[in-house]
Amino acid sequence: MIDLNNLSIKRAKDSFEKGEYSPSELVSEYLNVIEEKNPQINAYLEVFRDDALSQAKEAEKKIKDGTSGKLSGIPLAVKDNILIEGKIASASSKILSSFTAPYNATAIERLKKEGAIFLGRTNMDEFAMGSSTENSAYGPTKNPLDESRVPGGSSGGSAAAVAMNGALAGLGTDTGGSVRQPASFCGKVGFKPTYGAISRYGLIAMGSSLDQLGTITNTVDDAEKLFSIMKGKDPMDSTSYYPEEKKAKDGALTIGIPRELFDGLSKDVLENVESAINKFRDLGYKILDIELPSAKNALAVYYILMPAEVSSNLARFDGVKYGLHKEGEDLLDEYLKTRGEGFGKEVRRRIMLGTYVLSAGYSDAYYRKALSVQKLIQKEYEKSFEKVDLVLTPTTPTPAFSIGEKTSDPLQMYLADVFTVPANISGNPSISLPNGTVPCGEKSLPLGVQLISSNYAEDTLFRAGKDFLGE
Amino acid sequence: MITPEDIDKLSNLSRIEVSEEEKISFSKEIDSILEYVGQISELASESGETEQTSSVRNVFRQDENPHESGLYTETLLKEAPDSQDGFVKVKKILSHD
């Protein structure tokens, strides 16, 4: 038996080298866990059993030959909106239920080159729209730590896969917190890089100015390792960029606390955040109160800009080029039927909301105004990072909520992202670190603490994260 | 105030068929979301910050070295619900009457 609990890339690689176990044995162990737990948890929509086993054999050979890559034999879970050539990528939507990816996402290509093994594709909120993975066309994912609760979302399948020991690490996408929030709910490390740091080529787009690929891992070191492989300029994504020069600073670090944003948090959550602040103080970090007066408006900005981009991005799903097709009287009727039946409720809601905020007579009041407030928020963060190296908040206002608790009130669901959205609006990199548990009924559930840094200072996040978790 | 008639218009613009029943629930939900996001209207005017440009810049490149024509046609057409002679097939768009 291999101990999969909190297994890291480093530890797995050491074990391969020492011959404690082989990549095939590790992959088989994960496949066994998936077989046992997935029917209940529904983290994976599809498991690539045969591919994974044959890739493991290949990795074994390379390790023996001394030609292995940085990730040879490391098994990963991949969110269903990231393209793997020859595999279905449905974004958990009916409209793409049979869509087979004709090419690899750049991130997948780069991980593959280093020998990573893809165990399967994981469940998500349809087109990454949601905070609980309840908006999937293929049923909700359950939180492995408490099956009556959600794993968070939209990358809930990848988070649950890692939390149930069904993968060493998971890939997700984060448009408003979709990697960090489920990581917080599942007690894992969730990392979203600076906007554009990882190519979006081969990601099924939601809000293109906000989308960024991220990771869900057991350790900060794993996030750093995966990031170092995936990051950087890609000719296939003109928004991809990563500077050569180092942006992180050496020496003692200062953490800014925007306390004004903590208004309305429960006593348990507040105590949890305070414990994190104290821990950093004990570790020698300087703590400074800061103000981010516009950050509280980030969620409102997000629910204008994101649906606006959704409404144009999802226009491509028309039943003509790929995916579901419904017969109608004429072409228009086919569009109406295909999109009416193919998209779930939340997706249709956001497309119509986006159409509204972009429509003549309203775009000035909503879309253009949101862009100007976005600018304001970006400036406030920029200014804070002249004084502090990191900004600390809770990742989520509550621990994992119950399945069904927020499905009837979309606005309540949106508020679950109130702490994660600002980093998407500002574009800054951010990491969620597990910070113990808070009491929740008869159980205790994990809660994350979030750090945000200035653009391209991911190394500062990794350094603080490792200090915090004692890595 | 968003009415079911507004949803009717929006669903047409978005090319999404919506049932009568859903027009009512969507109108209520979208109304409450718009009320929430409306909070920014005051903030933006207070700040006097009305620029729309962001610090993000376009990255241009020459449009050169195209791949061989037809190289991906077969792969991509395999995903199309209907095709004929290397083309995606759709219902007639222009009518004669």
Structure, explained:
The complex is a heterodimer of chains A (471) and B (97). The model of chain A has no long low-confidence stretch (mean pLDDT 96). By secondary structure, chain A is an alpha/beta fold. In chain A, helix 2 packs antiparallel against helix 3, helix 7 packs antiparallel against helix 15 (458-469) and helix 9 packs across helix 11 (345-358). Chain A has 15 helices and eleven strands. Chain A starts with 8 loop residues before the first helix and ends with a helix. Chain A is globular. Chain A has an eleven-stranded mixed sheet, with helices on both faces. The longest helix of chain A has 24 residues, at 364-387. Chain B has 97 residues and is mainly alpha-helical. In chain B, 42% of the residues lie in helices and 4% in strands. Chain B contains four helices and two strands, in the order ααααββ. Chain B has helices at 4-13, 20-37, 40-47, 73-77, and strands at 83-84, 87-88. Chain B has a two-stranded antiparallel ribbon with strand order 1-2. In chain B, helix 1 crosses helix 2 (20-37). Chain B is flat. The mean pLDDT of chain B is 86. The interface between A and B is large, with 61 and 50 residues.
Main features:
A: 471 residues, eleven-stranded mixed beta sheet, B: 97 residues, mainly alpha, two-stranded antiparallel sheet
SSE inventory with pairings:
The complex is a heterodimer of chains A (471) and B (97).
Chain A: H1 9-18, H2 23-41, E1 44-47, H3 49-65, E2 75-79, H4 106-113, E3 117-122, H5 156-163, E4 169-173, H6 180-186, E5 189-192, E6 213-217, H7 220-230, E7 254-257, H8 267-282, E8 286-289, H9 298-313, H10 331-342, H11 345-358, H12 364-387, E9 390-394, H13 410-414, H14 421-426, E10 430-440, E11 443-453, H15 458-469
Chain B: H1 4-13, H2 20-37, H3 40-47, H4 73-77, E1 83-84, E2 87-88
